[in-house]
Design brief:
The structure holds 2 protein chains of 2 kinds. By secondary structure, chain A is mainly α. Chain A is elongated. Chain A has one domain. Chain A is built from 9 helices and 1 strand, in the order E-H-H-H-H-H-H-H-H-H. The longest helix of chain A has 30 residues. In chain B, 31% of the residues lie in helices and 27% in strands. The longest helix of chain B is centred in the C-terminal third of the chain and has 16 residues. Chain B has one domain: P-loop containing nucleotide triphosphate hydrolases (Rossmann fold, 3-Layer(aba) Sandwich), CATH 3.40.50.300. The chains are: A mainly alpha, B alpha/beta. Strand 1 of chain A pairs antiparallel with strand 7 of chain B, so a sheet runs across the interface.
């Protein structure tokens, strides 16, 4: 037998989570359903007039995406910590940050990516013009990926806390505010006929910052969580 | 697999949980080819000691050395040499026995399906390999967790109550596996209440109280 390379270990974690989600698909689809339901409630509560709705469509889609991402986060590490899998990851001799990043990546594929893919449809229902589709999807792509890593840090910190979901929201939401502001601003700018590159570049910068520091923070938080 | 003279040494370990001083100046040393059995009543700190040795729990004072070097600061190297069987089995109920091994033991070693089958066969659950773990009995789950040790290729085994839920044949199996491991020059440290290699000449005891 030969020592497993870090990359193939991370790939195993990624594939394992996809396989587990496939066997438990009902849990995975919940955030997506929440996303669609929330966005369809807005025309009912405000106005069915598309030209009115159009002004807030970018913001509504972004808020709904942010909240449904949060919904999916709480259980991110819980089952692995409770059944002892996390202990074995910590003791595997592989860099823990990479394993956790792989787990977050599969989480994003399962919960973040569907939000991005669905966004033109829910946007159109709110009167979002076709020209803004690309910007909305790109901003959500960067935004949900950043949120998954940020949320991973929060979930790692609160995994030992009973009813940690409120604490998790309090930890993650302030950090997610810039994403919400730049993301919905990019959509508004493109609808006004301006170039959205400024806010999009800021989103990309936040994404790379989070991606580079996030694994270290998650690994440190998980090491504390498995102590108890 | 193992160089001679590998030593695991713990010196004057002190550990508090909350306001209870659980481990007071615990020291031991185990050499390659030896088996250390940690005994003592419930709640005396056997699991705590094993978790401190693993590096899952920080000790307030004291030092753990592996092969003459402090573990702290070189924990990835130490963990590569070490396999830990906790009192949790670390299994996913939705995965089959084979998948569980592939996805967890596979993090340490590049495994072929034949390696996985050989390990399952050794612990006597090869015929259950494609069943979801939720449908295995408690003893079979423990056997599956034990099979991970065989795939870890580790010099040091740290076992927390390895015979929990096992039948008489299962206890014999654990004794046999530990004896083989120690016979190859490995080191095993186990916490146990029950009979476990009590008449073995290589057995060393550490009584906590």
């Amino acid at each position: 037998m030969q020592r497993a390379a870090t990359f193939s270990a991370a790939r195993l974690v990624f594939r394992r989570d996809l396989m587990l989600a496939w066997r438990r698909w009902d849990e995975v689809t919940q955030p997506l359903i929440f996303y669609v339901v929330v966005t369809t409630l807005f025309p009912l509560a405000t106005t069915p007039d598309l030209s009115e709705l159009q002004k807030i469509s970018g913001g509504v889609v972004w808020v709904a995406a942010l909240l449904s991402s949060l919904l999916a986060l709480e259980s991110l590490f819980r089952s692995d910590v409770e059944d002892g899998t996390m202990e074995q990851w910590v003791l595997s001799g592989q860099p823990l940050g990479w394993l956790l990043l792989a787990k977050v990546a599969s989480h994003w594929v399962l919960t973040g990516l569907p939000l991005v893919v669905m966004s033109p449809i829910v946007g159109t229902a709110l009167g979002l013009p076709f020209d803004a589709w690309g910007t909305l999807m790109l901003s959500l792509l960067l935004g949900t990926a950043t949120l998954s890593v940020l949320g991973g840090i929060g979930a790692a910190l609160t995994v030992g806390v009973r009813r940690g979901s409120v604490l998790l929201s309090l930890l993650v939401l302030p950090l997610a505010m810039p994403l919400l502001i730049f993301g919905s601003r990019a959509v508004t700018m493109v609808m006004d006929g301006d170039s959205p590159s400024g806010p999009l570049q800021l989103l990309a910068a936040i994404f790379f910052l989070t991606l580079s520091l996030g694994p270290l923070a998650m690994a440190a938080a998980i090491r504390i969580s498995v102590e108890s | 697999m193992l160089p001679d003279g590998a030593v695991l040494e713990a010196r004057a370990i002190n550990c508090w949980r909350g306001d209870r001083h659980i481990l007071r100046d615990v020291s031991f040393a185990v050499r390659s080819g030896e088996f250390l059995k940690i005994t003592g009543p419930n709640g005396v700190g056997k699991t705590t000691l094993l978790r401190v040795v693993c590096g899952l729990l920080p000790a307030e004072s004291g030092a753990i050395e592996w092969r003459g070097r402090p573990v702290q600061g070189a924990s990835d190297e130490f963990h590569t040499d070490m396999a830990y069987l906790g009192h949790l089995n670390s299994l996913k109920a939705d995965l089959t026995a084979r998948e569980n091994l592939r996805f967890l033991a596979g993090l340490r070693q590049a495994l072929t399906p034949a390696d996985v089958d050989a390990a399952l066969d050794r612990v006597g659950i090869l015929s259950r390999g494609d069943l979801q773990t939720r449908s295995l009995s408690a003893g079979q789950k423990r056997r599956l967790a034990l099979s991970r040790l065989l795939l870890a290729d580790a010099a040091l085994w740290i076992l927390d109550e390895p015979v929990t839920n096992l039948d008489a044949a299962g206890v014999d199996l654990v004794e046999e596996l530990v004896r083989e491991h120690v016979g190859r020059g490995g080191i095993a440290v186990a916490a146990a209440h029950q009979r476990l290699l009590d008449d073995d000449p290589e057995l060393r005891r550490l009584e906590l109280n």
